[in-house]
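Quick check before the chapter quiz. The format below is the same one you will see on the exam, so make sure you can read both the input and the output lines.
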Amino acid sequence: MGRITYVTGGARSGKSYFAEKKVFETKKERIYIATALSFDDEMKERVHLHKLQRGEKWITIEKYKNITELLEEYKESDKIILLDCLTNLVSNNMIMDREIDWDNFPQKEVQNLESEIKIEVQKLIKFIKESNLDMVIVSNEVGMGLVPAYALGRCFRDIAGRINQLVAKESDEAYLIVSGLELKLK
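Here is the expected output.
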């Protein structure tokens, strides 16, 4: 039965470094699920630096949806997965392959979109718990800042916040990282 560790914190809090450390401590073979998409030079450089920080010997999967299908071949193996990060998964599922006028997007459609994302995440959680795989999930804490001034930002914050709650609840362990310091939540 797979275990889930949830790691959250603000931007540049040290959460990815902490999560990588948790993965290395297990001494298991490692799978990295990268949910970010590189559209510009800055993001490409960030991805490059993360790869250097992690080091070699990772199976890397770059995907933000239908992740369980890609993990099926590893289901019975004794590996550990680092998903970095959940908030990129949420945002990419919100905007990729969609043309939405967020300023005029009906609330019912926002709820439908959130349901799609929730189903994707629940499917992943169920898959991990029924497998031999362990997973560390990194996510940005989105509820401690200002209310975004634009509709897309508010929808993202609300959906990501509820998805974070779901994963935190279903996790076996949960950590909040602030300024490189960890606080074990459960």
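If your answer matched, good. The first strand starts at residue 4 and ends at 9.
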